[in-house]
Each structure stands twice: as structure tokens, then as C-alpha cells.
Amino acid sequence: MTGIFYYIGGILWIGALFFTFNILYASLLSPPKEGLIVIFFAFTCYSSIVLLEYFGIIPYVGLFKLTPYLYKDSQYVITTTSMVGLVFFSIFLTGKSFAQKLGQRSAEITQAKKELEEWGSRLEEKVSLRTRELKESKDNLSKLYHISRVISSTLKLDDVLKVILDFSVKISGANRGSVILLDEKKNIFSIKAAYNLSEKIIREVTFTKDENTIGWVVKNKKPLYIKDLEQDKRFLKKETVDYKTKQLLMVPIVIEGEVKGVINLDNASFTIDMINLLMSFSEQVAACH
């Protein structure tokens, strides 16, 4: 670059323009300390050629011959050299400021892109969740429709109870279940439909209206979900039967404002939507009782 500057014409300012490429490169892509070093070397090379020509140490070589005497004019040499040094430094500061703003803008764009990607991911999750909810709602409506058809096709309560219990176990994943109804004459609840229960339990297990968890459901007339029966004081284990239960959901069957039965499901995790669906099943039982 110094050679190009020399043959263009040392003291003529147009030759100094070739140093600006290095300075711009340094200001945009180099750290501030390295950029200042580049400016120092550029100005040193520039001023060295000017001084060497001025003192006649090297011959004046100029592409432009219009004003060859200027390289001997001391006032012109000092003024031009000073101005070129100032221009070099101004170019560096301007380029560095531009580079900082460009870097800041790039960081803002990167952050905005990241936020947009996060927003897109959240939107995708919400759409996926909503799609699953709609599918579950459709499946639930299908189950209710099927149960309604079964109920409308038979007048046998036992058949209705069996269908509803089978659907309840299937959708909840429970490993045991039962439907117990109130015997108005004996004033006790007994099992009328069962899934995966022994004959002994079906035959021997009964509850009074104020006994254990049955009593709570009868009193409150709403579902009862117990996650850990071993720690729940409302549950007293029947010593006469082998009835190992960890989790329990009890859904009341309410007829004319009174609990006339309960759907029991054992050992499964239940969501609010699932409990609401099972409440719809219990309403179907009440409708045909």
C-alpha cells in the first residue's frame, strides 16, 4: 500500500486515500487496540514518504504532474500531513461507531429471532394441546353417544351398569372398579357391577350410608378422589377381605337430590376432565334407574 501511495504521488492527497481501505477494515473488524495500531502504521508510512521526498532522500515520483512543486512547499506538507492524520483517525472512529451499532443491531435481531422462535414453540404447543383436547372431547362425546344407545336399547339396569363400568375402567386405566347401589329396604350399599373383583368381595363388602368414604360422598354429593388411601383417615380397610387399594375415585349417582349409588375406580390417576366425563356416566345411570 505504501508503494502504491509513493508512485501515485506522495504529497498529493489522492495517494493517501489508499490507506483508508486498511483503516476501514481495522475499524470494522478489529478490536480498538489493534485498530489504533493500524492507524499508527498507516500514518507512519504516509508521513515517512512525504518527509523522504521533502528532504530529497528519495526522488519524487508522481502520476500527476500538474503541481509537482507542492512536495517542496513546507506549509503545504505540514498542513496536508496533519489533515491526513486527522482524517485517518476520524475514519477509524466513524467506522468503529458504525461497527458497534451494527453489532448492537445484530444482537437485537438475534434476540428478536430467539423470542420469535420461543413464541412459535409456545404457539405450537398450545395448538397441539388444543388439538388433543378437541380429540379427547370428540372421543368422550362418542363414548356418551354409545352409552346412550345402549341405555335406549335395553331396560335392564344390570346391562347398563356393566357397560358404564366397562367404559369407566377403559378410559381411566383403573385396574379395578365397581358400581354400588343403595338397597332402600336394607339401607346399605352393595356391589351391583364389578370389574376385576373377587366373588368374595362382591358378595361380602357392603357399606352403610354414613360409613367411611361412602358416607363422605353421600353427605357432600360430589366426587371424592383420594391419592393415597393408606394416609387418608376417612378410609378404614375391611379386615375380612383382601382389598389392596392405593388410589380411589368415587363418583356419586344422584337421583332426585339423593345419592343412590357410587361408581368406584381403583389405582389410577384421574384428571378433572376425566372426572367430569365419569360424572356424565353417572348421570346416565341415574336416568335409567
Q: What's the SSE blueprint?
A:
Blueprint: H1 2-9, H2 19-29, H3 32-54, H4 74-153, H5 157-172, E1 176-183, E2 188-195, H6 199-204, E3 206-208, H7 212-220, E4 224-226, E5 248-255, E6 258-266, H8 272-288
Antiparallel strand pairs: 1-2, 1-6, 2-3, 4-5, 5-6
Q: Can you tell me about this structure?
A:
There is one protein chain. This protein is an alpha+beta fold and about 290 residues long. The protein folds into two domains: about 1-115, no CATH class; about 155-289, Beta-Lactamase (2-Layer Sandwich), CATH 3.30.450. The protein contains eight helices and six strands. A six-stranded antiparallel sheet has the order 3-2-1-6-5-4, with helices on both faces. The chain starts with a helix and ends with a helix. About 25% of the residues are buried. The model has no long low-confidence stretch (mean pLDDT about 75).
